[in-house]
Amino acid sequence: MCGIFGYVNFLVDKSRGEIVDNLLEGLRRLEYRGYDSTGISIDGDNRDETLIIKTPGKVSALKQKVDSMSLNRDTVFENHVGIAHTRWATHGQPEYSNCHPHRSDPNCEFVIIHNGIITNFRELKTLLLSKGMEFESETDSECIAKLFKHVYDTNMKAGIYLDFNELTKQVLYELEGSYGLLVKSSHYPGEICGTRKGSPLLVGVRTDRKLKVDFVDVEFRDSAKDGVISHNTQTQEEMGLLPVTPSESNLRTSQSRAFLSDDGLPMPVEFFLSSDPASVIQHTKKVLFLEDDDIAHIYDGELHIHRAKKSAGESTTRQIQTLEMELNEIMKGPYKHFMQKEIFEQPDSTFNTMRGRLDFENSRVILGGIKSWLPTIRRCRRIIMIACGTSYHSCLATRSIFEELTEIPVSIELASDFLDRRSPVFRDDTCLFVSQSGETADSILALQYCLERGALTVGIVNSVGSSMSRQTHCGVHINAGPEIGVASTKAYTSQYIALVMFALSLSSDSISKSERRKEIIEGLKHIPQQIKTVLSMEDKIKSLCDSNLNDQRSLLLLGRGYQHATALEGALKIKEISYMHSEGVLAGELKHGVLALVDDKLPIIAFATKDSLFPKVVSAIEQVTAREGRPIIICNEGHEVLAGGKALATLHVPLTVDCLQGLLNIIPLQLMSYWLAVNRGVDVDFPRNLAKSVTVE
Ligand code: UD1
Ligand code: F6R
């Protein structure tokens, strides 16, 4: 999905070459999110000259383009603003004119990069066209750049010079939709405004000096008195302002407390603005996450936060936090792809999900994030689990154990369908949001919908600091570490475990369930080691792909009970990464239609691990073999499924507690999808048409 990166240096000398390299490196760190074009904007040799360099394709193509230009790399800037963008096409093809940055006019008076969607862009475009503006792209984003110029010019004509943040506020007033936005302007050299609504944006700060305080005040200014300067006599009188010129310092009255130096002089500082901490942590761990409607205005080495709109009860400061994430956590290590690395990380990531939360000796679970909310949740009348894609499958996989342990009715919802139906939600509902990124637009909209209706909202989220993690009342971080491969793997197993631990916590006061709880906690203890055992089957799985699956066009996966989710998740992994059509089918539904597909050619994978439904799955396999089907069977050692000698292959996975078996059964499918994709020459970490974090509806 689209990514934003901005770099500001103040009293820290940087050559143009260093600035460009910084911007390109920032973009590289955003690559994993998926994109189809890139671009940057920097200052030219004259102070009011702005350059835009952009291209469809990868960051490497942009670098080639930059290298081929005769840019003077040695020019040194004491203060400079650079912005950079990766675009994932929504409005308009991935072609040059649609790449960001977009400009207000050929002189690039205002240059913007934007994530999200401007829903009223058609109306705005009509208005701006009527004012004589000429559009160069099919994007919704371009109208933002044009709007900046229009609002700026209109004010100037009326004799009003606006502070950059005040101008931004006026522009945002006209915009509908969602945005993460950075703007630079030749009218405000060395300054940048960044703002967000429904799309993430954070600011990293790097300085040798110690910050005075670890927060930034939100400046609630009255626009009629502050941030607006008139240089037209009549307007000055009307507004009661002294005649001043635009550059005069009394435009800015406040100083940001965090950036006050002991000697009162401005301090050398660099700022990194980004939609993703992954592109900031190599520079600094000190970051501030913006809230919706915040405007971050950086000038003279200070960060100021203003509000696009003032709403009641909001916090008056923004914390500067220290990010825990390490850069090496987001590198590939010895693996060829992030997806492979993440599959093999699962013994560790599942362990990390449980670490410090499961007391195996006393069979107890302590989830710090929901501990104090448990009594409220226990009293709720139902739990609604809401998610998309793989995260939805983790809900499906654990719904049954949730109901068994908590005796609270649980429904599961795909976020988009939940919103389409405008499903009724009540104050005594608990809505559980499951998401790796914590930024998926459908899930966030569903979260807002539930918040508006007064329900208790709980997050099961991987990304700390993400919108969902911050907007839910409480929740559990799954602690799987950053997931970079577009196909979700380790997040699935960690979500699964977090949800099981959640169900265990909710039932901790039920004596009748204590034996079952003990059994599950004991089972969880062995999961990391058992995953390791399944991972050691990689060679067998690889050769199974080579001998039987690489050339197939279609694949069926059969599962029942707990393994229905495994079948759906396995099918999703295979289709998204290897582009092979695959379908997960509830084994009980086989005879209601799907059986018509079965012949001696269609490969079928059947999950026949030992649980109470085992005899029924065996019977489904018999229905398949009776029609010349040759299934690949995933079962437990000692619980062979003979399939009349017709099985194409059998994969043995270790036995665990029924409700945890899906954690082990999904691993062969993750490996299978990976090798099928590699064998077919697919760019595993960037499958076509997909993005890591789907921040559009
Ligand atoms: C927390 C700390 C962890 C520390 C541990 C020690 C964080 C992120 N975690 O972990 O570093 O080692 O205490 O006791 O600081 N939350 C939501 N929505 C979500 C996810 C989480 O509101 O979707 C909230 C939780 O309610 C909680 C906070 O975020 O208030 C941290 O959650 P979590 O990381 O799960 O808590 P701990 O495991 O206690
Ligand atoms: C599949 C995959 C997607 C995501 C879905 C939700 O491998 O990654 O199906 O699971 O887009 O994303 P999150 O979990 O970030 O809300």
List keywords for this structure.
33% helix, 697 residues, Rossmann fold, 19 helices, carbohydrate derivative binding, eight-stranded antiparallel β-sheet, Glutamine Phosphoribosylpyrophosphate, subunit 1, domain 1, 24% strand, binds fructose -6-phosphate, alpha/beta, 3 domains
Detail the topology: elements first, then pairings:
Layout: E1 3-15, H1 16-28, E2 37-43, E3 50-56, H2 59-68, E4 76-87, E5 102-103, E6 110-118, H3 121-130, H4 142-157, E7 160-162, H5 164-174, E8 177-185, E9 192-197, E10 202-206, E11 215-219, E12 228-230, H6 233-239, E13 269-274, E14 286-289, E15 294-299, E16 302-307, E17 317-319, E18 321-322, H7 338-344, H8 346-354, E19 358-359, E20 364-365, H9 374-379, E21 382-387, H10 389-406, E22 410-414, H11 415-421, E23 429-435, H12 441-452, E24 456-461, H13 467-471, E25 474-477, H14 490-506, H15 514-535, H16 538-549, E26 554-559, H17 562-578, E27 581-586, E28 604-607, H18 614-625, E29 631-636, E30 649-653, H19 661-679
Parallel strand pairs: 11-16, 21-22, 21-23, 23-24, 24-25, 26-27, 26-28, 28-29, 29-30
Antiparallel strand pairs: 1-4, 1-13, 2-3, 2-4, 5-6, 6-8, 7-12, 8-9, 9-15, 10-13, 10-14, 11-17, 14-18, 15-16, 19-20
Helix pairs in contact: 3-4, 4-5, 8-14, 8-15, 10-14, 10-17, 11-12, 15-19, 16-19, 17-19
The structure holds uridine-diphosphate-N-acetylglucosamine and fructose -6-phosphate (F6R).
